[in-house]
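Think of the structure tokens as a kind of shorthand, similar to the way a musician reads notation: each symbol stands for something richer, in this case the local conformation of the backbone. In the example below we present two proteins back to back. Begin with the first one, reading the sequence and then the tokens, and try to describe in your own words what changes along the chain.
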Amino acid sequence: MSTWHLALIVVALLAGTSVHAATDCVQPAAVCAQPVPGAFALIEAGTPPPILADAKDYPGVLRAAHDLQSDLASVAGTRAALTTDKAAAGHMAIIVGTLGRSPRIDRIVRMQHLDVSGVRGRWEAYALQVVEHPEPGVARALLIVGADKRGTIFGIYELSRRIGVSPWTWWADVPVPHQATLYVAPGRFVDAPVVRYRGIFLNDEDPDLGGWMNAKFGGPNHRFYAHVFELILRLKGNTLWPAMWGNRAFADDDPQNAALADEYGVVIGTSHHEPMMRAHAEWGRYGHGPWDYAKNADVLRAFWRHGIERMDHHESLVTIGMRGDGDEPMTRGTAIGLLERIVADQRRIIASVTGKPAARTPQVWALYKEVQDYYDDGMRVPDDVTLLFSDDNWGNLRRVPALGKKRGGGYGIYYHFDYVGGPRNYKWVDSTQIERTWQQMRLASAYGANRLWIANVGDIKPLEFPISFFLDLAWNPKAMTAQRLAAYPSTWAAEQFGTKHAAEIGDLLTRYTQYNARRKPELLSPKTFSLTNFHEAGRIEAEWNALAARAKRVGDALPAAYHDAWYELVGYPILASANLNALYIAAARNREYAAQERASTNEQAALTHRLFAYDAELARVYEQDIAAGKWTHMMAQTHIGYTSWQQPVQNVIPATVTLAVPDKATLGVAIEGDARAWPGTAQAPRLPPLDPFGAKVREIDVFDRGSQPTRYTAEAAPSWLRVSPAAGLVGGEQKLRVEANWADVPEGSHVGTIKVRGSDGSVVRVKVPVSKPPRTNAMHGFIESNGYIAIEAAHYARAVAKPGLAWQTIPNLGRTLSGVTLLPDTAPAQTPGGDSPRLEYPLWLLAPGKVEVRVVLSPPLDFLHRGGLRFAVSIGDEPPQVVTTKANPEPGTADFAAWDRAVSTSVYVAVSYHRIAHDGAQTLKLWPIDPGMVFQRIEIVRDNLPQSYLGPPESQRL
């Protein structure tokens, strides 16, 4: 077996792994600071070896070689020579080149008898290998060889990443750490992508990216796009849908754009509604008559023909088909026959202009929104065309290919990290969990959608983290295992900030995206989180405050050189998101306090205004202070004060209330679980129950209603009930803790009283229900309390699978803890019952009777086109009850409201009803039927559950 084939065995284990993170120099071609036997000295005494290329190689390869020269200089402090001369340039060298294009590389392969079958002919494959005596005058060399232009470029940039140069060095101001010595381990590393076309779509780019590119480059010209092309390639992507908002047209705005993309090696396409390489803005500039093929076919054909003529020889992905003008749906009732004629005519234009069969020009038909309906209704395009399925604009796949159904053009996915449309734009900061992207895109890959992955990434910034993940995942979806997914945030953080703080920064990224994904920031309002139930608003605020404090500590601990990168990648998104949540919660408190006539109402109004101003200050720092003002306009996106799906023209502060506070001492009382206040409410205040298996503490607020401070006393009865502090000066507001001495509480249900007296003579008697169920040794599982049980899906007692199937917990996926799913995603439908796969949860119920089971899922769309995804629920010995999820993103359909609610809340809540035969021990079972279901939590409810956004905290488990 040749050494190249031995290397491929290693590659099978390492494919998709970011070897630049390795430090032990065990992996082939790993880069580290200490030499090992056979290692190649990449930098010694601050000096790198010369770089040898060939003048006949692709210009894009030579350009990337110059980038490597600059990257090595940034690391070593000394600039290496770069030569394309035939003569050797030194004792040691880095030699780069493309098979079949670089005579230098071909000569080395021939003279060294290197077996390159693992690289040659494989799309974008490359190899890194240390070789001996590759050519006269060179004793040892690090060989970077590519199967094609991009293969070589990816090999070059892989070495750059391994020596510590982040792909985000320019775009996120990530510093390059200095190294006086670096070594490359012996052995070969061979890699190649699984997804053929991997790219990003610059979209919805105003005001941020658009304003920035205009200020810095004078518009969307080749000087701007040079940075975009380099970023894509450094991230091992290869495709771009260029910016097209705000009357932008890639090829028309600057004739150098397309030529430069081809030189770099970036494949250019156009978005889902811009056919035949023409930007939508060009129709406004040059089109005549309606955008309607039935009425204006000749003009449209001429318009499209120019797009293909201008494409010339540049590597492109041609979008075919047609949507309505300006990314609108086609006219309702558009005939499939007309659409098929459009495609046929477009392909005739492609063949006529290129002089070769249309099938030899890569084409894409985007099944976006209503276009998918045409596909479902039977419209077809030729086999060589790539079918590009889409998510629902919110990261949930609408459809995947039928399992095992192959086509020449393959299948792809159009995915979103940014969106303009209903139910709400989301364009500000990252609000997508990579865990959800992993689950959905791995599913797509499993069903064969591996020809094109394209992500709407808005303005690029501040979506650096999910962009990296998406393109890393696209390189080899199978290699991104659940274990690698869990490590990805810290691995990515290490690439930007070094290893010392990587674990902490990685967790910060995980937490902030999880918190933002609960409900996208643009959808937040003062009404989102409950002030009265489950301490929800306070818990949300505390979580964000803790996260912001951690982010600040990390920022303070990092060397000064990393401060700009920290602010762009970690600091701003976390501090601004925390501030936004605090802003809405302060506005909510202001309104509630006003209704309760609290003297502190005005303080909450003032706090709301301060937080609103701080939001602007955080953006100002980003745009003016960071990187010496490099990112002007980049945080101009409005995100406060939405009243519809469309963004406000400017941020709008939430409405606040101010009170004329009387100049006297007046006591007010409010209780947990109720927004009202006393005195002044006719119905007596009644706290939610105390329960040894539920809430062990309840709270009462005493507060001033006047400008003068009030004194209070609080007395508890009976004796086993306690309240603290029992007396004091209010001074604004004071929380009183109410709890029971459970050893002295008799079994059964009771009602105690807390009597609150104010120095103004007021008296408020608060009723305190207390329940102490009988405790037995048999009691186990999740214990019912206050009429409900709440369970995180990951906290199952048993996960039953069967051969070929396995349960997978996806850490952090979801609003509260993690998601659980049955793999593989291609498994056939299961029949619930018997020994079928299931999750089991032990319950302890306090009474027989009817209960409602709410299963909280990641939004499940009917990606298999079966009429909805199904699972089943059973309690005890009852037969499994099948539940079908229904959510349709098409407006006007019966299940559109369910979809709208699911994407707004980031979960789908499926409900079933069950009758419990007896109290005590029961087992709830979740039975998956269709693949792709992700369970987040379960709530078993007897009566109405108090309103909240996230639901109650998890129940106690014995």
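Once you have a description of the first chain, move to the second and do the same.
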Amino acid sequence: MDLQGLDTHQRQLVIDGFLDSLSSWDLIYLRRRMHVHESRIKLASLEDLPAEIIIYISQFLELEDQLACANVCRSWRAAWTFGAVTASLCCRYFSGLTEKYNLPHSQGQALFSEYARLYIDKYLRPRPNAYFSSRWFVGGNEALSFEDMREDVCHRTECLDFGLRTFQVCYDDGLLAWQPDEAFVVVSDLKTLTRSRCSFGASLVAGHKLDLQAVTRKLIVFSSIDLSAGSQACREIQIWNRNSDEWRRLSLPGRFAKCYAQDGAVVVVTSSGDAFYWSWGGSTVDLQATASALTAPPSECVPCLSKVPGAVFHPTEDGVFFLIWVYKPVPLDDRVHVIVVAKYKQGKPVQRYETTVANPARNSGLVHPYSDGILRFSLRCQKMNNHGLYMLGVGQSCLHYHGNKSPLAVSEWKLVCFNVLTETFVHRAYEKCLISPKYHRPTWDWAEWHQIQAWDDYLVVLWQPRSHVIHEPCTFSELLLATDNVACVASSQQAFGDTIRPRQLEPALTIDSFHQRRAGIANHVFMDDDLIVYAAPDSILVSTFRGAKNVALPPPMDGNPMASLASLPAPTRAEPPQPGPAWDCEAAQEPGGISEANDGFTILDMTVNIGRLPIRFRVSAPADQFTQKSGVPGAQAAPNTDGNMGINVLLHGDGGQSFFAYPNQGVKANLMGVAVLAPDEDLKWGSGDRNGVTRPNGAAHSAAVNELIQNVLPQVVAFNRSNVFFTGVSGGSLTLSGFFMPAFMGNYPNAGVLLSCGALEPQVRFDPQAAAALANTRIHLQSTFNELDFLQPLIPASLAAYEREARNQGLSDNQIGALQTVDNTPRGGHCAFDEQNFGSGVQLMADSFANIMLDGGNGLLGNAVNVLTPVVGNENPDFGKGSRR
């Protein structure tokens, strides 16, 4: 009986015919065989299924079920540990795990089982933690000796309380390094509960001030300031080897910005964006000298954060590391950032990766009409697990209801991550894992976050309310869980809401409850596979997973750990050494604060409300020119008093890039640099649609700027009100020429206005005083040959309008030509005055301000082009095809 090639119906007909041909004795024999199971009916079982089906089924199982399925029976174990299935599970749950141990995915079953059980024990079935608390105890004076931290309770006079002052603390793999004095650093090993010290008093005697910057199991890295040079700028790095007690020095060509360290290697970057790789026993590599197309900016993008990169290291390969840059597209859109990662091997770039991060688009729903809020993105390179995942940057987006700027607006956290083992990007979103009715998530209008740490699926954020909200210093913490975490059945918001929150999966390694119970200020929080470390002004609190490896668990505390902490001896109040001024990778993005300008003077960043408009501004000046009301250390001026210096007020272009880059910072030609941020959702002066020249809020914004200069700035800094200049960039130039100048220039006698890459003829009637002021107002319009097409016809109209008004005021052609000039010589695109790109072009214009605008200037843009062409007879510059580059 041949059944091959027949369909079901045909097979049944053949079988029926066969049965009809059998005798009664044959049928009885056949029935007997069926009854005694000599011929069994078999269906496909799990081991018979293709690997793709098992992989599909695994997507709907939780982590504990994955392990249980492999232990049902031998056949199931063979199916569940099949190479393709194991590879899928490793990549989905613990990406980079097999790469770390240089194993094929198909051979990673033992690793997967080990890490899965550890994750379950740590987060899904947490056991009670072990806690250890200690005061800040200085300890002995021997550099290579080790003391038992558990004996601190016996020392009363040597415990310190640093109060509200910040102090230097670094952490790596259980090592907590902190600097209580200008002559030494204390290193606490929280895994072995021992303490040692690194002393450098000899360097201080020799005139070098050392500030702690990074720590590893092998090295401690310090920035070094030469006090004898009379400058607070750091241009040297000193590195101490913890094992051999040896020192090394690394001189920098520019001002130190940031350093990153792992084991015996260090990457140092300067404030100008230069990066250097150094390793113990090796030579220093200037990474700028090895730059190539792999490290070039993306097309149509400008750098953020002054081009200063971050760095992460490969965990298993020496000499392999990655540099990270942040860019914004042109035309500038503050909602979009481009992240570029370049892989380096032996100091040379070998591979390049790109991704983008963006704010959610405007929600036009009728029920909840959110508007585009702010996307604050900061570069933060931190390790997130032990199998290759690093955080590259933190994005916090904030969506407000239209017309409502309350602190209850929707705020979302997103991390841009990169796995250096799989060399892939990971974008992670976070939500609160526990619903707390007591606290709402704050926005940066209400509070600012000053510390953020991520490990595995969890994110811990420390907030400090702004002074206008809560006057007493305090800290709020927020614990968040990734929406695509291991515990979720599927990476969806519904699964998160239905699975995570009802189960209240608060991890074992969290001290969120301690943050909310404790009074005072949290300075730092650190996380890794074994520990969470909470650093307060007077003590540290360590939470240890009881299943952690290579950790010396302290004796269990009785009762509440916070009560045990309170029972420790009272510390001595101490003033920590204040680190030298350092470049901050988030300072360009975060509102508020005091920092240092490139020339060493002080930058004050603050926000005020003017006519219901939030006006954020920056002013850079010598510390003694600020008023005591400003809060700047060293301020000596009284409010509403004139100073000897003038100001140069910059209005940025659409998107705010020039505000954050702050090209006019510092004091140049006796003018203090002031930059003002547009009070607009899209950071456009005068508001308006994309690429639009109509500025519906131009008059209101201009009035706010005038009020800022006339009544707010005199309260915080002393300046000469008869020496006020203005700089407009792109959209800022449109608002200056279209609204501010015809309305308010009468308030600024002998002023000057530099209009760069854009101008608009007056959109409001000339105020009589403003029109009369044109007789003494210096105006220069600087464009490029390939200016944007839609701006090209606006420039001649603006030139003609101001020339005409000056002539109406009785000025001769020679007088007008001396006051009003124009140029578009540079063969570049929009604002590319250096014929390179937007950002560097604007910086070149700011650096050339005195040459072009002030009496005695040589008229040179950079060192090449004289741009002082009288506007009379040159009202219609020749333009080429428009370009954004």
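Compare your description with these statements about the second chain. The chain has a mean pLDDT of 81.
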